[in-house]
């Protein structure tokens, strides 16, 4: 099944069950705690937080997401894209656990001829929060799942909150067993590549107060109106239904990977390191395309810097594959043709996208040239003084001013028989990261979600009892 069909099947299924289809929000979000939308629920946060009345009781969407946290995973796991699409169904004070579970089960397992995805029910595993015995019994009853395939997990994996006072609650995730070729037996707690998570159901049931991290905060009580937020990874479902190894090989990304291999004159599948690079290129070119389409421009901070890193990493990966000519002009049109059927804006904005990407690649190529001169001079100095190692400060300068990733510096230094003081480099990088984190904390502190309205509702409904605290914190 093509990704575009999986997408429309989802929307049709939930529309037929009373959900309003809501278009994807643009990737750059006004949410002050985020750079980009990273989950389907983000545009709905004000409704969940009680800041605005929800316009519908039920909604469904396919939301464009960018997760910067996952960038390092790209190409190395089978399942993390820096850009991906999250299909979701949402209930604002309407249905709750039982229906959410029943819908997810029905759509996942009903035959393709009847509008479902036709996954083999015998290969589906789920996780529940260890305190959430209600969900366990729903999975048994509604899906007929045996207890062995309903796995208990703790707060880290199966408890959701926004990280600020407001709604929170247990989650339940669906996994598909891809079989022994993909890893070890034993369920999702053992191997998350073999057992691929494809859908997460969040049951917003409680209200939490202020406190550190995911746990350790007080649960104030049950929410007066409980909500459902779910996220099904579109590319993950496509990976499963198209029977491919990983999400960079589905119909929306494989053509870019293929073109990159052609340009570089390598064969995908011949060398594991080159394969990772090809997957990085396929992923990053698409992410770059989608970010540019939504109006982010390459720059030196915030959103622009994320985009710059992504585009440069794509170019750099092509270089490492042996292709040194301008690459984006060859690859972006392929990504455009993959994405335009679902996102016509990508085709409309393409001339601008191509121009911005081209300028960014030119700038990177010229930094590379200048950086190479700086590097060569520094290497010559090291050799003259009889040293063997390039100072960390030089590697940091190359990174910070010339946009040289450390692996590029290492490689180019090694070509000339010189090592790099990695410890010194890492120390300087950590200092810089610490500064960035302090900035992010300042931004977050200034922009915590306002839950005044939620509090007003709670006040009106009187104090609630403290059951949640006991169940959540004492069972383990
Ligand atoms: P994982 O544990 O595999 O990293 P997650 O638990 O972080 O996934 P959720 O936050 O629960 O993911 O997001 C909901 C769904 O979105 C997931 O079940 C998955 O199908 C999909 N998803 C999450 N992150 C990615 C990603 N980086 N690329 C593609 N799909 C993703
Ligand atoms: Mg994750
Ligand atoms: Mg997970
Ligand atoms: Mg999850």
From TrEMBL:
Keyword tRNA-binding assigned: yes
Reactions catalysed, as given in the entry: tRNA(Ala) + L-alanine + ATP = L-alanyl-tRNA(Ala) + AMP + diphosphate
Protein EC: 6.1.1.7
Alphabetized UniProt keyword annotations: Aminoacyl-tRNA synthetase, ATP-binding, Coiled coil, Cytoplasm, Ligase, Metal-binding, Nucleotide-binding, Protein biosynthesis, RNA-binding, tRNA-binding, Zinc
Cellular compartment(s): Cytoplasm
One Gene Ontology term from the biological process aspect of the record: alanyl-tRNA aminoacylation
Domain of life from the UniProt record: Bacteria
Domain Alanyl-transfer RNA synthetases family profile residues, every copy: 1-476
An example Gene Ontology molecular-function term: aminoacyl-tRNA deacylase activity
Note on cofactor: Binds 1 zinc ion per subunit.
A cellular-component GO term for this protein: cytosol
Keyword tRNA-binding recorded: yes
Domain comment as written in the entry: Consists of three domains; the N-terminal catalytic domain, the editing domain and the C-terminal C-Ala domain. The editing domain removes incorrectly charged amino acids, while the C-Ala domain, along with tRNA(Ala), serves as a bridge to cooperatively bring together the editing and aminoacylation centers thus stimulating deacylation of misacylated tRNAs.
Recorded family membership: Belongs to the class-II aminoacyl-tRNA synthetase family.
Function: Catalyzes the attachment of alanine to tRNA(Ala) in a two-step reaction: alanine is first activated by ATP to form Ala-AMP and then transferred to the acceptor end of tRNA(Ala). Also edits incorrectly charged Ser-tRNA(Ala) and Gly-tRNA(Ala) via its editing domain.
Name this polypeptide is given: Alanine--tRNA ligase
Source organism: Streptomyces violaceoruber
């Amino acid at each position: 099944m093509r990704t575009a069909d999986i997408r429309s099947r989802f929307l049709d299924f939930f529309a037929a069950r009373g959900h309003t289809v809501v278009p994807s929000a643009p990737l750059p979000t006004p949410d002050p705690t985020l750079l980009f939308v990273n989950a389907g629920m983000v545009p709905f946060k004000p409704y969940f937080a009680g800041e605005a009345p929800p316009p519908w009781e039920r909604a469904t969407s396919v939301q464009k997401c960018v997760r910067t946290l996952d960038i390092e995973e790209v190409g190395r796991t089978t399942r993390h894209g820096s850009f991906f699409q999250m299909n979701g169904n949402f209930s604002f004070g309407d249905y709750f656990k039982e229906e959410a579970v029943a819908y997810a089960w029905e759509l996942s397992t009903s035959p393709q001829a009847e509008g479902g995805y036709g996954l083999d029910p015998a290969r589906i595993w789920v996780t529940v929060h260890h305190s959430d015995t209600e969900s366990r019994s729903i999975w048994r009853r509604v899906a007929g799942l045996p207890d062995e395939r309903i796995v208990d997990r703790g707060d880290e994996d199966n408890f959701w909150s926004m990280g600020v006072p407001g709604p929170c609650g247990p989650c339940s995730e669906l996994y598909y067993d891809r079989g022994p070729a993909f890893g070890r037996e034993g369920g999702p707690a053992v191997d998350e590549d073999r057992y691929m998570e494809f859908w997460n159901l969040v049951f917003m049931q409680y209200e939490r107060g202020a406190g550190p991290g995911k746990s350790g905060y007080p649960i104030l009580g049950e929410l007066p109106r409980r909500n459902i937020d779910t996220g099904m990874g579109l590319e993950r479902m496509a990976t499963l239904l198209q029977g491919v190894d990983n999400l960079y090989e589905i119909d929306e990304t494989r053509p870019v990977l293929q073109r990159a291999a052609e340009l570089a004159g390598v064969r995908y599948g011949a060398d594991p390191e080159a394969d990772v690079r090809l997957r990085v290129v396929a992923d990053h070119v698409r992410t770059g395309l989608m970010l540019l389409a939504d109006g982010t421009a390459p720059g030196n901070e915030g959103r622009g810097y994320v985009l710059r890193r992504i585009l440069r990493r794509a170019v750099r990966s092509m270089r490492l594959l042996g292709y040194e000519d301008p690459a984006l002009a060859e690859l972006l049109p392929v990504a455009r043709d993959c994405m335009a059927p679902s996102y016509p804006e990508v085709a409309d904005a393409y001339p601008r996208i191509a121009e911005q990407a081209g300028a960014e690649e030119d700038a990177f190529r010229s930094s590379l040239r200048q950086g190479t001169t700086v590097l060569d001079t520094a290497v010559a100095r090291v050799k003259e003084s009889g040293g063997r190692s390039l100072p960390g400060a030089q590697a940091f300068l190359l990174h910070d001013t010339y946009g040289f990733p450390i692996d590029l510096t290492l490689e180019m230094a090694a070509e000339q028989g010189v090592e790099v003081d990695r410890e010194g480099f890492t120390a300087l990088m950590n200092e810089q990261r610490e500064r960035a984190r302090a900035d992010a904390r300042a931004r977050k502190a200034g922009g915590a979600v306002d839950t005044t309205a939620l509090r007003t509702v709670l006040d009106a409904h009187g104090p609630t009892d403290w059951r949640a605290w006991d169940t959540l914190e004492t069972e383990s």
